[in-house]
């Protein structure tokens, strides 16, 4: 084919491909041309060359056929869709066509261990339908959100599953608000996919095709959910990954099954991702899992705490049994350490991408079951516990029989190539055994040939070898080359030796080549049968995989509980949260933690938390949220004892100032999220508001905080009364506790005066009465003179005395002005100590600075911030 032809063909296929890049097979290479070549050259660091075609020159890059997968994976994991056109032999030549499009949501064998969800979102009559499909494990979840806040809840679900690819339904494309929020919040590839696949009738058919009669029993919640589920299946089918058969289970759930955790809360609580680079997430802290599937499941649990008490208590029981039995637990974990990712292996079997070494991993993982059962049964604590129940739920006989088949069939050290033999044990198949015997006889004959020739013909330096061009040959040293018998036929002359063949050798060679071929083909055939057997047993493998993952998570949580003196919380439907000597699960790992109590009940629902900066307010409040969430994944909790009333949601909002500092938020976002909490929280929720209102001017901030507090407490009878922890730096609010039933003050205790202040970090009743900002500044290393001066200013302010403001005049001489700040009126007066106000008209700049100065709440602003502001004012006055 001419160059024009190749590039032309590529460009034609490229136009037809619904993808970012096209890889087209040309013999032993996959090639990229033109812009695609430049793109992959850049992304993958491939060498780009030039190819001229039809008088034009095109960029060109290629990778060997066998190396495509890692390159493809790298592109797809960066969010691109890659079309692959394979070359197919047809009569009289070959043709190329696009067989598959690999996309971020449909990669069969991703490099990481995290779940890889493809999500579809469909807008229905009164809400949104959502489907989440992980083809690497066959997990498939479908739900619908309804009502006024259905969009927020849909976003919550999307955030929970963190899909790698999202397909919006036809109603959601273009300028949709939901779509904008998805773009803003999620790091997923958005794919616009065939509208037809979202049509209700078609989606329904898809589900029926996939699940047969079971589809009726699934009982999807409304049309939008059906559309979402059907479209997800259709999409996977159309991308051509061939993995659809691994999707054997569909799980529907409703928001009522889970604890609502909006995106901000998941992030704030650092459940699975830390907020800062050096931070540690809760997942990092708890992840003592031995397997990647276990880690995945733990992550999933942390993101989706549940409300079903029975299920939680079963988990507690399993964790309790394992926590109490260190030996049994160690044995279990040692066993689990040998497990591979069976759910993923099953998907690869279905897609046909499982090679022989991977098949052994299936075998070896199934082989662990008897050992696990033994570990459990031989421990009095574990036998009969919920751990045993988990194992009992498996079809162990089926697992055993699959294991035995694989063990009988696959050799111990098979190659990863499938067509060259060495995969299957000869005794597994009679025909194979016969072939192997003949093959080995021929090889033996060849092995002993040199010795025979040496002896028979008295030749020195004889050897037998094989290479690609000459096939088998007898090699004779130069000195004996003239003495070879007549039936030797010369093949090649080398510098020091000569190669010959004989009719007999040629015949054996033909046999060997033929036997090799037959053996390779037969073994491949047998291997494919086995792989299909594994594919057909995908549900079994998925079940075993899930069970191992579950045991792994139990053992991990038990390990952590036992090693950190955690307690089993009592779960109740009553309206309480009581924690004795509670700790923050992550912070306690790195500091000597001062334990704290916490008590909420029906009549004590709103705790106003005050205390100096850095005293531990935020930590205390997060701790309450984390104890609740841990309890609702079934885990033990960091406390001496705890009673946790199950909540329907946990909401947190941290004042914009903290977030602003990290470039994460604006006051607008702070208020949006506050509004979301005020809308969504119910009497059964836990709400944490940390310095809300701080991102704006003092008087605005305090007013907003005040009103929000009234709304969430009993002050306003017709609004929800969740359990609330409310940290504030507005001391004025602490007075409200006296007036609203259910609101109590607590504060983080500090001790001492001046430089000797130490934070006790015990939370005590009542409001705090001091600010320790200056102390913190000094702890932070602010220079001594600055700290001293700040103290002086503070004292003067407290005594309502005039303060010298040091400035510099235009001529460079120093100048001192005295001001008095009236704390009670907030008024600010310039004057000297005798009270004589200098008659002086201020210019607009100075006016503005004074205005700004009036706004500052000195007792509550950190010295560092103050300094920054003062510097700004100075430069403004100098202008
Ligand atoms: P605040 O919100 O009051 O400014 P933080 O909760 O951010 O204070 O805590 C400040 C620091 O004190 C953090 O580094 C935290 O790790 C530590 N800390 C908080 N509570 C405790 C505690 N109970 N025991 C020990 N260290 C704590
Ligand atoms: Mg704080």
UniProtKB/TrEMBL annotation:
Molecular function terms from GO: ATP binding; ATP-dependent DNA damage sensor activity; mismatched DNA binding
GO biological-process terms attached to the record: mismatch repair
Record-annotated DNA mismatch repair proteins mutS family domain positions: 685-701
Gene3D superfamilies xref list: 1.10.1420.10, DNA repair protein MutS, domain I, MutS, connector domain, P-loop containing nucleotide triphosphate hydrolases
Keywords: ATP-binding, DNA damage, DNA repair, DNA-binding, Nucleotide-binding
Transmembrane segments: none
Family annotation (Pfam families): MutS_I, MutS_II, MutS_III, MutS_IV, MutS_V
InterPro entries: DNA_mismatch_repair_MutS, DNA_mismatch_repair_MutS-lik_N, DNA_mismatch_repair_MutS/MSH, DNA_mismatch_repair_MutS_C, DNA_mismatch_repair_MutS_clamp, DNA_mismatch_repair_MutS_core, DNA_mismatch_repair_MutS_N, DNA_mismatch_repair_MutS_sf
CDD domains cross-referenced by the UniProt entry: ABC_MutS1
Keyword set includes Signal: no
Keyword Transmembrane helix attributed: no
Family listed: Belongs to the DNA mismatch repair MutS family.
NCBIfam families registered for this protein in UniProt: mutS1, PRK05399.1
Entry function: This protein is involved in the repair of mismatches in DNA.
Protein name: DNA mismatch repair protein MutS
The organism's taxonomic lineage, starting at the top: Archaea, Methanobacteriati, Methanobacteriota, Stenosarchaea group, Halobacteria
């Amino acid at each position: 084919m001419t160059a024009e032809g190749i590039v032309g063909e590529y460009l034609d296929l490229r136009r037809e491909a619904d993808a970012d890049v096209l890889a087209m097979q040309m013999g032993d290479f996959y090639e990229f041309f033109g812009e695609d070549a430049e793109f992959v050259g850049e992304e993958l660091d491939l060498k780009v060359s030039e190819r001229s075609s039809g008088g034009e020159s095109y960029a060109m890059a290629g990778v060997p056929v066998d190396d495509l997968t890692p390159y493809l994976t790298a592109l797809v994991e960066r969010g691109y869709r890659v079309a692959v056109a394979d070359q197919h032999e047809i009569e009289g030549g070959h043709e190329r066509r696009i067989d598959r499009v690999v996309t971020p949501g449909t990669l069969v064998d991703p490099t990481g261990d995290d779940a890889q969800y493809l999500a579809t979102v469909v807008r229905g009559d009164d809400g949104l339908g959502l489907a989440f499909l992980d083809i690497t494990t066959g997990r498939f979840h479908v739900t619908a959100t309804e009502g006024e806040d259905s969009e927020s809840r849909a976003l919550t679900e999307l955030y929970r599953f963190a899909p790698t690819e999202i397909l919006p339904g036809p109603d959601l494309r273009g300028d949709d608000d939901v779509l904008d929020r998805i773009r803003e919040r999620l790091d997923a590839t958005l794919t616009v996919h065939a509208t037809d696949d979202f049509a209700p009738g078609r989606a329904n058919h898809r589900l029926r095709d996939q699940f047969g009669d079971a589809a009726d029993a699934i009982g999807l919640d409304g049309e939008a959910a059906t559309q979402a589920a059907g479209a997800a299946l259709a999409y996977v089918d159309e991308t051509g990954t061939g993995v659809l058969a691994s999707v054997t289970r569909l799980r529907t759930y409703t928001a009522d099954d889970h604890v609502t955790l909006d995106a901000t809360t998941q992030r704030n609580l650092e459940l699975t991702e830390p907020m800062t680079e050096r931070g540690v997430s809760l997942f990092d802290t708890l992840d003592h899992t031995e397997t990647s599937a276990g880690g995945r499941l733990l992550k999933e649990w942390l993101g989706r705490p549940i409300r079903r008490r029975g299920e939680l208590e079963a988990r507690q029981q399993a964790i309790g049994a394992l926590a109490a039995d260190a030996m049994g637990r160690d044995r279990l974990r040692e066993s689990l350490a040998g497990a591979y990712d069976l759910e993923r292996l099953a998907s690869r079997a279905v897609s046909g991408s499982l090679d022989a070494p991977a098949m052994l991993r299936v075998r070896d993982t199934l082989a662990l079951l008897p050992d696990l059962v033994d570990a459990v049964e031989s421990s009095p604590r574990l036998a009969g516990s919920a751990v045993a129940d988990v194992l009992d739920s498996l079809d162990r006989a089926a697992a055993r029989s699959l294991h035995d088949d694989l063990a009988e069939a696959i050799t111990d050290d098979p190659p990863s190539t499938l067509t060259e033999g060495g995969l299957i044990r000869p005794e597994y198949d009679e025909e194979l055994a016969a072939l192997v015997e003949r093959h080995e006889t021929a090889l033996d004959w060849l092995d002993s040939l040199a010795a025979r020739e040496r002896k028979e013909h008295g030749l020195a330096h004889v050897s037998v070898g094989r290479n690609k061009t000459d096939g088998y040959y007898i090699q004779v040293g130069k000195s004996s080359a003239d003495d070879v018998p007549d039936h030797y036929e010369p093949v090649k002359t080398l510098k020091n030796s000569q190669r010959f063949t004989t009719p007999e050798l040629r015949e054996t060679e033909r046999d060997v080549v033929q036997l090799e071929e037959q053996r390779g083909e037969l073994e491949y055939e047998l291997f494919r049968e086995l792989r299909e057997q594994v594919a057909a047993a995908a549900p079994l493998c998925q079940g075993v995989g899930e069970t191992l993952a579950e045991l792994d998570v139990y053992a991990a949580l038990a390990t952590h509980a036992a090693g950190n003196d955690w307690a089993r919380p009592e779960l109740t439907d009553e309206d309480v949260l009581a924690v004795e000597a509670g700790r923050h699960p992550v912070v306690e790992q790195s500091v000597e933690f001062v334990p704290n109590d916490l008590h909420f009940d029906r009549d004590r629902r709103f705790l106003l938390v005050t205390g100096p900066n850095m005293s531990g307010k935020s930590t205390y409040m997060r701790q309450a949220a984390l104890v609740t969430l841990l309890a609702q994944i079934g885990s033990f909790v960091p406390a001496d004892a705890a009673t946790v009333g199950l909540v329907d949601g946990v909401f947190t909002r941290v004042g914009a100032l903290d977030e602003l500092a990290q470039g994460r938020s604006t006051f607008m976002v702070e208020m949006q999220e506050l509004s979301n909490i005020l809308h969504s929280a119910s009497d059964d929720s836990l709400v944490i508001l940390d310095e809300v209102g701080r991102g704006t001017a003092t008087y605005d901030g305090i007013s907003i905080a005040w009103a929000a507090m009234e709304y969430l407490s009993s002050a306003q009878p017709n609004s929800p009364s969740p359990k609330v922890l409310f940290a504030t730096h507005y001391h004025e609010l602490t007075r409200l506790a006296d007036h609203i039933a259910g609101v109590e003050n607590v504060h983080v205790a500090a001790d001492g005066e001046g430089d000797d202040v130490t934070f006790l970090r015990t939370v005590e009743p009542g409001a705090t009465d001091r600010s320790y900002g200056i102390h913190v500044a000094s702890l932070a290393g602010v220079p001594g003179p600055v700290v001293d001066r700040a103290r002086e200013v503070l004292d003067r302010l407290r005594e309502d005395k005039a303060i010298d403001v040091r400035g510099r005049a235009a001529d460079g001489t120093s100048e001192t002005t005295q001001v008095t700040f009236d704390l009670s009126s907030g008024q600010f007066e310039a004057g000297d100590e005798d009270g004589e106000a200098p008659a002086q008209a201020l210019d607009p700049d100075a006016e503005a600075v004074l205005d700004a100065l009036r706004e500052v709440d000195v007792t509550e602003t950190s010295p560092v911030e103050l300094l920054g502001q003062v510097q700004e004012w100075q430069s403004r006055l100098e202008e």
